[in-house]
Structures are given as C-alpha cells and as structure tokens.
Amino acid sequence: MAHIAVVAGDGIGPEVVAQARKVLDAVVPGIEATEYDLGAARYHRTGEVLPDSVLDELANHDAILLGAVGDPTVPPGVLERGLLLKLRFAFDQYVNLRPSRLWPGVAGPLAAVKPGEVDLVVVREGTEGLYAGAGGALHRDTPAEVATEESLNTRHGVERVIRDAFARAARRERRKVTLVHKTNVLTHAGSLWARAFAAVAAEHPDVTTEYQHIDAAAMFLVTNPSRYDVVVTDNLFGDILTDIAAAVTGGIGLAASGCINPEGRYPSMFEPVHGSAPDIAGQGVADPVAAVLSAALLLDQLGHPDAAARVTAAVGTELAGRTPGAPLRTEEVGDRLAALSVA
Ligand code: NAD
Ligand code: IPM
Ligand code: MN
C-alpha cells in the first residue's frame, strides 16, 4: 500500500488537509500517511525550515500532500523558498500541473461563460525561470542599491515541460497547446522557449498550436477562457495565470495542483493553488475543495484512477448543490465529500 507524507503547513493548510485526508481514507482505506511538522511553528520553535534529514525522509514516500506554507510572522521567502520551493526543486517537480474548469453550479464572475465552457490545464514549468534564485543585491539601504533577479532557462528544462504539455494535449479531446511567454521583450529566454516549442510541435502534427504573449493571455483568460485547452508557460507566468484561471472558474478555493516529477524518480507533491490565507485561518471557513481535488490528482498519480474519479464526481455533486455566496464550514464540506466519494 502507498505511503504518503503530509505537510499540512501554515494557516488554513492544516484545516483543508484534514478534509483531504478524510476523503483519501474514505476512498482508498489503508494508504499510510506520515505527518511532518514543517512551517512557521517549527521555524519559531527551532529555527529550522527543512532539515536535510527530513528532506531525505520525504524522498522515501510515494507522494506528498501539502496544505500551504507562509505566515505573516515569518519574513517573506523564508518558508516559501526554504520549504515549498526547496521541495519542488529537490524532487525535480518540473511539471506544475494546474487544471481549471468551471463546474456546474459554480457562479463564475463572467456573465458570458457558462459551466462546462472552461476546461483547461496550465502546465507551468516548476523548477527554473525567475524562481531559480539567481541574482543578487548590492549597496543595500544606500541610494545606490541594486537588485537583480535572473531567469534561468535551460533547453533541457524547457523542452521536457513542453513535451509533457504536448503529451497531455494529445490525450485530450481538443488537442491544442498554447505557448505563453513574452518573446517580444524577453528575447533570450523567449527564443529558447519558442524554438523548443516548435521542435516538439513538429513531433505532434495531431496537436494544434498557438502562441500568445503573457499580457494578451492574461486578457484572453478573462475575456475568453474557453479558447484554452493546454497552456504551457514559464514558472512565474504560470503562477500568475493560474490565479487568474482560478478566479475565472469560481475562486481560489477550488483550484488544485500537482507538482509532478513525471519520471517517478522523486515523489510528486499535491497542493492547493492557494496559500495559507492568514485572513481566514482558524475560523473553519476555508473551502477544502482545492485540497480535496489535489488529493484526487494524488490518487491518479498513485495508480487509483477510479478512486480519483469518485472524488472528482463527489466534488461535482457538492458544487452543484451549493448556493452561490452561501457561507460554508470546512469540516462539513469535508464530511460531505468523504460520504459522497463512497456513495
Ligand atoms: P492566499 O491564497 O493565501 O489568499 C488569497 C485570498 O484567497 C485570501 O483572501 C484568502 O482568504 C482567500 N483564500 C485562499 N484560500 C482559500 C480557501 N481555501 N477558501 C476560501 N478562501 C481562500 O494568498 P496570499 O494572501 O497572497 O498569501 C498568504 C500566504 O500564503 C503568504 O505567506 C504566501 O507566501 C503563502 N502562499 C503559499 C502558497 C503555497 O503554499 N502553495 C501559495 C500561495 C501563497
Ligand atoms: C503557488 C505559490 C508559490 C509559487 C509561492 C508561495 C512560492 O504562489 O504555489 O502558486 O509562487 O509557486
Ligand atoms: Mn501562486
């Protein structure tokens, strides 16, 4: 039986992860889960963010379920870089998979878009780009202060994520991939991305392709989200686009993601797109659907597609029964989803 690691993390992380575990236990009883106490509390207690010994232990799991990391009491970047990005990089989770669909019963903000008309997936590069940590600062706190942040793009890294996007598109009905970048300004990285995209596209004559600049894509994602099937893009563009995609499909509380190491050499990690939501943490009102759908992606990855489909269907029933704008209780939604998943 599979053995997963659970990093509940900060803020609403533990609240939503508890519901995801409830659902996992209901649909696939016997998945072993080990909890890892990482995040703001451990940092304050011990000064540790992610000790190497813990990283080694995490490596020995079949997958990781993560809630959210980041807390207002910890300087920005300490946990985000030191824990979350460290995991994504150490486990070579180069495919950051972020599906968005407008579910029946969910009121999206766009009057012109009906449920069923948005079903897209962003394949966000997960280990390079501006997230690589290259750059530096000089003359801090002087008038001459300079800070640089460099975007790292390797042919290997770019090509493999584009390849993943095409493989996914080939398995979908519309078989279309949109490359999103900013080739008109970021001419070095943009050229690399465009040439790698063209090379992989040539191997997939059955897949339709298009290119858009990030600014236009941000606009079209709001004005005409139905035009997208698979979107492949760089790390930072993908971060921003997937919050827009979440907003367009009913909110960040519904948006799931997988940080995937497709070769299976390292564990993949599944987490909601949202963060620790300090503004609502501790109130029991966070929507656990994003965490539960992330658990469904985890089940798929672990070879339980039927269980994943049951969880996804349960979410469909839950959302179809919601009254738009009505308040929810995290635990009650978790209980309902667990029950619906085995009904
Ligand atoms: P956020 O996603 O935590 O919150 C943005 C807004 O969305 C807030 O108003 C919040 O209440 C709401 N929201 C988020 N999840 C929700 C849910 N499940 N149900 C209902 N409402 C929800 O983003 P932020 O405020 O920019 O960041 C807060 C902290 O989280 C920061 O420390 C940030 O670095 C971190 N963060 C972590 C992750 C992650 O762990 N993957 C992702 C994003 C942000
Ligand atoms: C996300 C988050 C992270 C990211 C941060 C917290 C490092 O915003 O998962 O979308 O930028 O990838
Ligand atoms: Mn983000």
Automatic annotation (TrEMBL):
Enzyme class, UniProt record, top EC level: oxidoreductase
Keyword Metal-binding set for record: yes
KW NAD (keyword) present: yes
UniProt GO molecular function: 3-isopropylmalate dehydrogenase activity; magnesium ion binding; NAD binding
Gene3D superfamilies reported in the protein's UniProt record: Isopropylmalate Dehydrogenase (3.40.718.10)
UniProt xrefs under NCBIfam families: PRK03437.1
Entry protein name: 3-isopropylmalate dehydrogenase
Source organism of this protein record: Micromonospora tulbaghiae
